[in-house]
Design brief:
Radius of gyration: 17 Å
Number of strands: 2
Strand content: under 5%
Strand order of the largest sheet: 1-2
Structural class: mainly alpha
Number of domains: 1
Number of helices: 6
Order of helices and strands: HEHHEHHH
CATH architecture: Up-down Bundle
Amino acid sequence: MSIASIGEIIWVLGIVAWYVIRYPFERRARRVQVTRNARTLTDRMGLGIAFFGLAIVPGFYVATGIPKSADYSPYAFAIVLGAITMLLALWVFRRSHKELGRNWSITLEIREKHKLVSSGPYAFVRHPMYTSFLLIALGQAFLLGNWVAGLAGLVGFSILFFLRVTKEERMMLENFGPEYRDYMERTKRLIPYLY
């Protein structure tokens, strides 16, 4: 088995694990009433683009090998680094869902009895779910020996992040007021201690 094949298998396992982690939280979230919905066409487009870059493009590549012209031979250290990054991403993803509990939503929504969560990964960054997506995208870039499929996740993540994060923070400020402003002052947006 080639190094490139090992990277592809690890990527597939990571995406399956991502879905397995999310599914029970998604099911539970449907049972909690939404009190405010700030979903827009831009929000849906951002989610679609992120899904395209983090799942469709790399999945198509893994299944078909297209676009072959963008292939390169990955190094073993890149596969190891990609696997570690993917594991870290899944850990942050799971912890973020666990901390949010009934407050979790895939879109910009405030749920009944919504509380500001500032524990677990939320003690370090305001958007650890996005941090996990960034880590998945970086893992994808290391694991897939193809410039298009490998980098599609970073492009998709970046578009989603920059389309949504300001709106999300505005919504949280409107809902939680000074409590969220204080939280913003003591945490970074995406990367602990940096940004």
